[in-house]
Design brief:
By secondary structure, the chain is of the alpha+beta class. It has 18 helices and 19 strands. 30% of the residues lie in helices and 20% in strands. The strands form 3 sheets. Strands 1-2-3-5-4-6-7-10-11 form a 9-stranded mixed sheet, with helices on both faces. The chain has an 8-stranded antiparallel β-barrel with strand order 12-13-14-15-16-17-18-19.
């Protein structure tokens, strides 16, 4: 999956919502043209479909939906495509195509992969606006999560070309059904992660006849109210991780009292923001920024999303307790630039201000957050933002459980900080043909766990069979967390001239999996370019190891043979994620 994880939005109570479920408009002719998205192997087709912004009156402004079909790669394809529903809300499905093509390579042998940018996101009339100004100034990203003045400015800009009350999940799922009909698909196999899980559940409720299977990972039910339980669920996951460190001899020896380190860090930050020296992610030059208590807590929360990042938390806390906030500040900047600011913030606000925040009683979240690391700052800022954001309407009974006999595979991480397993259990009660699988040590995603390819096989088997009956889940119990790192990865750059850097340059391909990358030397810097993704700056910390600037626990390790690169291993938290080998056509160093 796309490793950038955004805040899941939940679907909440909206009092007095009287909009009935609007069915799809008459199928509209849609023509797809061959295309070749960067980083996506195999045949693909692209197109757009115009839909009414106001699906109820079917009058006024029409908006274009961006559609990408990654065609099945094998012979005799099945008639039902797999539809990926992106998270956020606010993420683009089509922009995730390179990663999805890799994850769903096996599934795609038999089925098309259908990607539709939800209204308000990606290439579908996006509600994009910058909340962090001035642009390019690093400190601007490290303030409030939802700067109030920027939210008001965002509303004013977007309302010139959008009715912000018409970007809700039910309307978006009716859009999807119109796309289905226009493309001639009878039934869909839905796959949703995070906010995409409730999008899938809403589609299932409104268009069950056109659903073959549903896979949901990190379940956010229609009665979850974001960010009501953020503080509680973060606290649970954090102490789970710190407890695991305490039971592992090497981690316990390196960090004898991680909870005391957490306490010391938060007490230091309670006295005021602290400075930290980081590397600028674009230039690699040293820059001093400051980090606040709220931002530090938010950063730890985001790290809990992924086991690869969560494993670094004891080392991050230990460094901060000793006064070194550089790792935490770099991780905070990464979160704000590539998680929060990477999606459509206007869409995020339109969804959450209609479907979440109105259902949170005054004082309820503050009471629950009292005494926790995260506290209630996110709730206060989100409530203030929604106070000036237009509020859409929802169908009656929107928060009630979704009932269905469709086959549903539910995946939860045992220490997910935002969609804990209890939510998967609750959803399963009204889905009579569902199977709930809890992944040990899993977070909101499962990156960094050993044996996690078991989940990919399980999902592929479920979609192929079309039933949860008889699924073999035995491999799930063998999934393990790798050992906790007992020290921070090297962060201090070492000098390396262009001649030495040139040894690593060239075109690379994935070893055993579809993946392309290019390493280029420019102005004395080595950069990693992945088609369809951003370009990342690599800084040497040893003769054969480069850290990815802006992500303290991510690195590229080169395996050399007589001065030539034999392999390049992309690591997260010291765990190999992707292995690259030089293409035969790459220039000799």
């Amino acid at each position: 999956m796309n490793r950038s994880q955004r805040i899941p939005a939940a679907l909440g109570l909206v009092f007095g919502a009287l909009v009935a479920a609007a069915g799809s408009a008459e199928p509209t002719a849609l023509s797809l043209s061959p295309c070749q998205p960067p980083g996506v192997p195999g045949p693909a087709r692209c197109g757009r479909l115009s839909v009414y912004e106001d699906r109820v009156t079917k009058k006024g402004r029409q908006i274009g939906l961006k559609i990408l079909v990654l065609a099945a790669t094998g012979g005799n394809p099945a008639p039902d495509p797999v539809v990926f529903l992106a998270g956020g809300p606010g993420e683009s499905a089509t922009e995730a195509a390179p990663g999805l093509a890799m994850v769903f390579a096996k599934v795609r042998e038999r089925r098309d992969l259908l990607l539709v940018d939800q209204r308000g996101t990606g290439g579908s009339h996006p509600l994009n606006c910058s909340l962090f100004e001035p642009a390019g100034e690093l400190q601007s990203y490290l303030g409030d999560f939802l700067p109030f003045a920027a939210v008001r400015r965002c509303r004013s800009e977007l309302e010139k070309d959008a009715d912000l009350t018409l970007y809700t999940t039910p309307l978006a799922m009716d859009d999807l059904d119109q796309v289905r009909a226009a493309l001639g698909y009878d039934r869909l196999d839905l796959f949703g992660g995070s906010y995409g899980t409730r999008a899938a559940l809403v589609y299932l409720r409104r268009h069950e006849a056109h659903v073959r299977t549903v896979t949901i990972q990190g379940v956010a039910p229609t009665d979850q109210l974001v960010p009501l339980h953020f503080a509680r669920d973060t606290e649970r996951a954090l102490h789970f991780v710190l407890g695991e460190c305490a039971t592992e001899a090497a981690c316990r020896a390196a960090f004898p009292d991680a909870k005391a380190d957490l306490k010391a860090m938060m007490e230091r930050l309670a006295a005021g923001s602290v400075p930290a020296e980081i590397l600028h992610p674009e230039t690699g030059e040293s820059v001093t920024v400051s980090i606040s208590r709220d931002l530090a807590a938010e950063t730890i929360r985001y790290m809990l999303y992924s086991p690869a990042a969560a494993g670094q938390i004891p080392a991050f806390l230990h460094a901060a307790a000793a006064g070194d906030f550089t790792p935490l500040a770099e991780m905070a900047l990464f979160g704000r630039q590539h998680i929060v600011a990477s999606g459509s913030m206007g869409d995020y606000l339109s969804v959450t201000c209609a479907e979440d925040v109105p259902g949170i009683a005054v004082g309820e979240g503050e009471r629950e957050a009292a005494g926790t690391m995260l506290g209630a700052y996110r709730l206060r800022q989100q409530r203030a933002a929604c106070g000036v954001w237009p509020r859409g309407e929802l169908p009656l009974g929107y928060r009630r459980p979704v009932h269905s006999r469709a086959p549903v595979l539910i995946l939860s991480g045992s220490c997910d900080p935002v969609t804990p397993p209890a939510q998967g259990t609750a959803v399963a009660k009204s889905l009579s043909r569902s199977l709930h699988v809890v992944v040990p040590h899993g977070g909101h995603d499962f990156d960094g766990l050993k044996g996690v390819d078991c989940i990919d096989r399980l999902v592929a088997d479920f979609i192929e069979r079309g039933t949860t009956t008889g699924l073999d889940t035995e491999c799930v119990d063998r999934i393990e967390r790798p050992p906790f790192p007992t020290a921070l990865a090297p962060m201090k750059p070492v000098p390396m001239d262009e001649e030495r850097l040139a040894r690593f340059a060239g075109a690379y391909t994935g070893e055993g999996r579809p993946f392309e990358a290019q390493l280029e030397v420019s102005s004395g810097r080595l950069r990693l370019a992945i088609p369809g993704d951003r370009t990342m700056l690599l800084v040497p910390v040893s003769g054969d190891r480069f850290r990815i600037v802006g992500v303290p626990f991510a690195a590229v390790r080169f395996e050399m043979d007589q001065g030539r690169v034999r392999r390049a291993v992309l690591e997260e938290g010291g765990v190999a994620q992707v292995t690259l080998v030089p293409k035969a056509s790459s220039p000799s160093p």
